[in-house]
Amino acid sequence: KKDLKSVINNTYNGKRFILLPEQKEKYNCLEDIRLSISDALLSIPDTTNKKIIICLLNSSLYVDKSIKCNGSIEAQVISTMSTLYGFDKYKSDKYPYPQSVHFYTDIDENIKRYINIGKNISLVRDLGNEPGNKLDPVIYSNLIKKNAKNYTVQIMKEDQLKKLGLNSILHMSKGSSKPARFVIIRYNGLK
Question: Which of 85, 99, 6, 105 has the alpha carbon at shortest distance from 42?
């Protein structure tokens, strides 16, 4: 663990950073915390190529003791990643992504887990934003299988669907030039 001053002075040498103030009366639930992170990030005029440090404050600094509010670190990390999300794969004007985003906390939390959750949320958003002619059932099912971690993937093709009597899926795919796929995902637990 490093103290915040040494992190800012030695690692980032005066680059842009964000500190969220302690305002106990303002933060009385996770939604307030998410909104404060989002508002702070959106107040930066241009994040392109900037380094951003988010100082994650623990829930005892954020919330009134009488209100049960667990998960403030997770809310801050995921809100940061969601606010900085942009899908510009097919646009000539690119989203102003920061050069890097770093999280600092003075308490022992599983930041890597929350970052992975944020990355997976962004992946799902990317997949939802892809046009149908770029992400057909075959490509989509293969992508799911390729990214499988802690789960197994079974991809059923049209002949298997027919054997199982899943005719509604087959009928839906008749309107497309691409073959139907049905994906079964089985979670294997953490390894």
Answer: 85
Q: Are 157 and 185 in contact (CB under 8 A)?
A: no
Contact assessment for residue 91 and residue 50, using Cβ atoms and an 8 Å cutoff: no
> Around Cβ 42, how many Cβ atoms within 10 Å?
11
Q: Is 126 left (phi over 0), alpha (psi -120 to 50) or beta?
A: alpha
3-state secondary structure of 38: helix
pLDDT at residue 43 above 90? Answer: no
The pLDDT tens digits for 116-169 are: 889 889 988 998 899 988 899 999 999 889 888 778 899 999 999 999 999 999
* Cβ proximity of 111 and 147 under 8 Å: no
Provide the token pair at 97.
């992504």
What are the backbone angles phi and psi of residue 76, rounded to the nearest 5°? -65, -45
Cα diameter, the chain: 65
Question: Among candidates 147, 163, 158, which has minimal Cα distance to 182?
Answer: 158
Q: In the structure encoding, which two tokens stand for residue 107, read together?
A: 């308490």
pLDDT in tens, 158-189: 999 999 999 999 998 888 889 999 999 988 77
Structure confidence at residue 2 (pLDDT)? 45
